[in-house]
Amino acid sequence: QVNQPVQYGNRIQAIATYLNQYQLLPYQRLQEYFQDIHGLHLSQGTLRNILKRGHQHLEQFAQSAKEGVSNSEVGHFDETGMRVVKSLHWFHVASTDTITCYFIHPRRGTPAMKEMGILDGFDGYAVHDHYSSYYQFDLYHVACNAHQLRELIHAYEQHQQQWAQKMISCLLEAKAEVELAIEQGKTALADERVRYYDTRYSRILREGRKELPVLAPPKKVTRGKKAQHKVKNLHDRLVNHKHETIAFIYDPSVPFDNNQGERDIRM
Questions:
Q1: Which residues lie closer than 8 Å to 104 by C-beta, 6 or more apart?
Q2: C-alpha span between 248 and 264 (Å, rounded)
Q3: Does the global pTM surpass 0.85?
Q4: Beta bridge partners of residue 143, listed in sequence order
Q5: How far apart are CA 128 and CA 142, in angstroms?
Q6: pLDDT tens digits for 16-32?
């Protein structure tokens, strides 16, 4: 492919891209590597151009990946803070078990999600962690029960909420029964088992109301929404988002948690 007096072939460009994008070597250390190992002096401008060309070559692939997630039956969505030139940005992920799309944006919420271009046209189950911006989209929402369990454990251990312990047992027993049904080749739980867990879930929350802690009234009256105890907020969320929380009972193809999306953000 060499057609210029000074040019680097595909192997050098591939090594530079791999070491920078996957092994996270910055430009200066990349220059040291090529000088020490290959006897090549690559300027930082050359390295930048190599990465820019790689980015351009991947545009069609990136679009295909976005379409793959958009057309999937189940998608996992998450976001986390990330520094870009010392400024806080948000690293968004949308993924399935075979495709992962990344998108970085100065904002965390709905404008960034719209600009990513997946949730607007998504027609499957969207698994996420209850972040309010996701509810701006007309989707089949699914709550991450790993998050729910962590908060329920805290409510039980730190605030002695017995209903929280009962809810933990309910969710984990339902999860085990669904997994057993899948292992046995079944596509759904028996109707009576679905009704059992549906009723049990609601009864636990109904009976748990009398345990909920109440914050002392503020000394100074302020306008706006009255503050609630975190345990009350958790209880309200489980009441208002019942179907998103136990969606895996109604349809065993729905995942119990959002671990897929969270793992895709990690190294």
A1: 82, 84, 89, 90, 91, 92
A2: 21
A3: yes
A4: 128
A5: 6
A6: 999 999 999 999 999 99
